[in-house]
Amino acid sequence: MTDVTPEELAARVRPALTKLYVLYFRRSANSDLSGPQLTILSRLAEHGPSRISRIAELEDIRMPTASNALHHLEQLKLVERIRDTKDRRGVQVQLTDHGARELERVNKERDAQMAEMLKLLPQEKLERTGELVDIITELAEVYGNWREPASSS
Description:
By secondary structure, the chain is mainly α. It has helices at 6-27, 35-47, 52-59, 63-75, 97-118, 123-145; strands at residues 79-83, 91-95. Helix 3 crosses helix 4 (63-75).
């Protein structure tokens, strides 16, 4: 077996991941929430109330983008602003009860959609795919925490 390079693997896997991503989100579009909005809600569910700057950092987006997304989620009554208990001048954002229920509902729908996709695989490949979940999860965590080194120019 020859050593595979990250570049070779990327060239093989990227087209399939892109196709699956597009098809998955087109077919599981029962929610008015976008993928980025869902990840923000998921972050709030996971980390609890957070400042907008922290959400921007976790999502790797600019502050105005995070602020706009949170404003939209606030209009939908999925999040609410609260006083920062550590710094009374600051504001945090947290999930509302409605936001938590909506996140759970959408996650269940999307899990069901993903299950429908996976049912297309024969049992042998389904079991092999199960082995990849840990690798994909680790890659998501490592890449999510990785920052490109600053350019020296």
